[in-house]
Amino acid sequence: MEKIVEPNAENILSKSFIFIMAMTCGICAGSNYYNQPLIYSIAEALKVNADQVALTIVISQLSYAVGLFILVPLGDFFEKRSYICLLMCCTGLAQVGLSLSQTLPALYGFTFLATFFSIATQVLVPFAAGLASPKKSPQVVGTLMSGLFLGILLARSIAGLLSTVWSWHAVYLVSGIVILVFAWVMWVKLPVARKSHQLNILQIYGSLFSLAVHQPHLLRRGLAGGIGFGILALIFTTMTFILANEPYHFNDFQIGLFGIVGLAGVFATPWAGKKIAAGLENKIAVICMGLLISAWIPLFFAQQSLVAYAVGVIMAYFGLSAFHVLNQNLVYRISAEARSRINSIYMTLYFGGAALGSFIAVYAWKHWGWEACAALGLAMAMVSFMIDRLDFYEMNKIAKQEKAP
């Protein structure tokens, strides 16, 4: 756990600063999703197949997962303010490099670097949770996650708009500059933290495996959340394929604009935070899983009805957004001193699931079409539900044992 050098941590977390941190989360996380509505535009500019460009979505998720495993644990080793700002600067510079890409290898390489370093959000969220009081912490996490999800949603629309009006290169140039500006803002606003533990880097990484072995609860939450996020990755990876072709023929901006239907997820996160504070975790989990499963009824008709498609996306986005906040709050309770490492394990599984979902989407679409994607998405939702129920069963069993005389 860190000791805050600057006093009155609660005073630091003013409403305005929480809002700024939420914006930072949205800007950093959203930058990883600009490529989703731009697949055909980038393919045309680089004179390659859309399938080849679509692989950048898989690369983004894999790179982010690798960054989560390698870089996030170091948040328990380095002073957090400096580390967060360094990661953001690396991301901003990589985004500028991505804007200059003229070949497929350059596109792949800068995509990997930009998303690899963009994990600053995953250091910032547990840091902010630690600054808040235990009572206020769920709401702070919920607000920051609202910013993250809103950033992802708006990123697709902004990317589509800039690409339509200017070019896809402008999307990443503007993104890189904005991230660099917010890195400076975080440097000015965040408190300086001093470590209270003496772990070295090898011990930090060793403790990751120790946590994974001795905390099956963490692994179950990570797997359930990761498979859930894989469902959303499948939906958004195929969105361009569905909307750019028959019967819709949407352009980049229209595709990005359609993604805003997931705005319901922004309202889900503060709702989940309040319900968690009230001790209604199991109820939230059941509602979320129900939405992720039933969303596939309207989603199955995505190529026939835009309304049905929108309804399915809203249901899935709301369900996953609230489920993610629930999972984070549950795993943060394991150990306050190891929050960065706990978050690293959870989020590595989370984005590993997204990478799997993106790969399934590209492969299944190419070989079998949307119906196969929908069937696989439903199967993933059922698996996530079973893992979630198993974890709550184990948590309840442990709670009863602790209460027994």
Automatic annotation (TrEMBL):
GO MF, any single term: transmembrane transporter activity
Q: Keyword check for Calcium, yes or no.
A: no
Source organism, top-level taxon: Bacteria
Q: Where are the transmembrane segments?
A: 12-33, 53-71, 83-100, 106-128, 140-159, 165-188, 223-243, 255-272, 284-301, 307-332, 344-362, 368-387
**Assigned keywords, A-Z:** Membrane, Transmembrane, Transmembrane helix
InterPro entries associated with the record: MFS, MFS_trans_sf
Q: What is this protein called?
A: MFS transporter
Give the organism the record lists. Acinetobacter lactucae
